[in-house]
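MODEL INPUT / OUTPUT PAIR
PAIR INDEX: 1
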Amino acid sequence: MMKLQNSLIVVVLLVAMLASCKPDDAEVSLVPEADRTEQQVKDRDSIISYLETHYYNAGDLVDDGTDYSIDDIIITELPQDDEGNYLPLPDPDTNTLLIDAVETHFTTFEEADYEYYILRINQGEGEYSPNFSDDIRLVYSGINIEDGEIFDSAINPNAPFDMLGLIQGWRNVIPQFNVASEFVVNEDGTVDYSGSGLGVMFIPSGLAYFASPPFGLGVYDNLVFKFELYQADANDHDGDGILTHLEDLNNNEDVNDDDTDGDNVPNFFDPDDDGDGVLTIYEDLDGDGDPSNDDSDGDGIPNYLDEDSTESNQDS
């Protein structure tokens, strides 16, 4: 009964937490999904066209120790003549075409291969780089490539976002930056950060909302997010003493497919990962806060993943 109660509490808390996150997972849609590989070809062409016809104020963002913000990054479309043809880049000493500045990255998601792009303004001067399942504190602004309009933003860094509740593109990009190097809490409760990670991500619909967008976006919209990454904290979603990113046993950055005891509750959600009746947190026999290094029978499988090892630090 205690195990069931603990599981229900964890489920309720996590569902409530993920429901509050944004840019969050997609809403339910009745639109039939396109083939992901075919859609990615279209999305890539659309994003490349955007990168080739837009520039940013690179000359205003020199690496001189200034703490720039997302408001300092100005992305502008190239001017056009009367016939709609794009004109050359204005003031090349100050401006840079996005296509000449972004990094191209590759990933596989939902069995499709994707390209996404990063404009890295500041790597972030802190020592910590987030895991894909961390809570992060940041501000951001989301732009729809299709119309250039801002569709979403967050200006309050005090409310953390759980990355497991965010779209895949964020889980790909944010861990490639570092957090701020320091922060100061002001008398009014606000926080000033220094040396934060600053960049822009350009992500295809398949790493965003795909066929199930939230209100204000269309299906298969490609997106741009400016962001300032301030802080990150590793998560232990089920409170079992194993950080969530370490419960990704097959190292595919998807904790939903790791289910040691086969009870249809993934390990990161399951306070008893091996289903042996002993809660994982009680299988930390040496009390060092890490159940993963306790292996009573020496078979190379830590007790919390070994149903044959039922020792507990609660045994009298």
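PAIR INDEX: 2
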Amino acid sequence: MLRTFRADLHIHSCLSPCGDEEMKPFAIVNQALAMGLDMIAICDHNSAENTAAFVNAGRKKGLAVIPGMEVTSREEIHLLTLFDRQEDCLALQDLIYQNLPGENLEEVFGHQTVVNDRDETIGINPKMLIGATLLPLEQIVSMVGSHRGVTIASHIDRQAFGLLGQLGFIPEGISLDGLEVSKRTSKEEAQKRFHDYQHFSFVRFSDAHRLEDIGKNITHFLLEKTSSAEVKMALHHQEGRRVVEQ
């Protein structure tokens, strides 16, 4: 039976150098539940090291947490990637780490804190997570697809790190599953600005880096259950699944 789920599938944890230190598993899960969300995704920059802790914390509290990443392509394009299986997410992380140059400068970019599901710090990631990988857009999308994941172009209405801002167009034949519009652009404005891309499903998420931003920009999905596979079906209007509203 299909029903509507409230989802915020673009949330950063304390692992992202731009994320607040308070963005730890139970703090985020509790805030998401307080905002009436059914499903969230943790999408840190170029790393999935905190996703297992969040999935476990969500399970304890009754909130679906999807493991993911916000990957930066060689062209400096941000891509949301979502998976049902942790091992698929980590397979992408392995490829990213092999193609991610540089080390983080904490005093410039911020801390990159790895945590467990009890909100305890268990390490610091030394990589330059805020940087761009050496991987081209098409290779990332292909890799995600081969692992049954979802790829959504992040905040396409933004000049910086947005697909349209960086390339000026969406390459023909690329297997994106959807396009994200940030809270700075209204639904009506997005329909006008991106009229040529209406064959893609549009979604809106918070891109939260602070607790108070979680759930302030969400998408309603008509699904059978909470999973990235179901979200993928909704983005492609399959078997009754669909994006209800943004």
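PAIR 2 NOTE: The CA atoms of residues 145 and 151 lie 8 Å apart.
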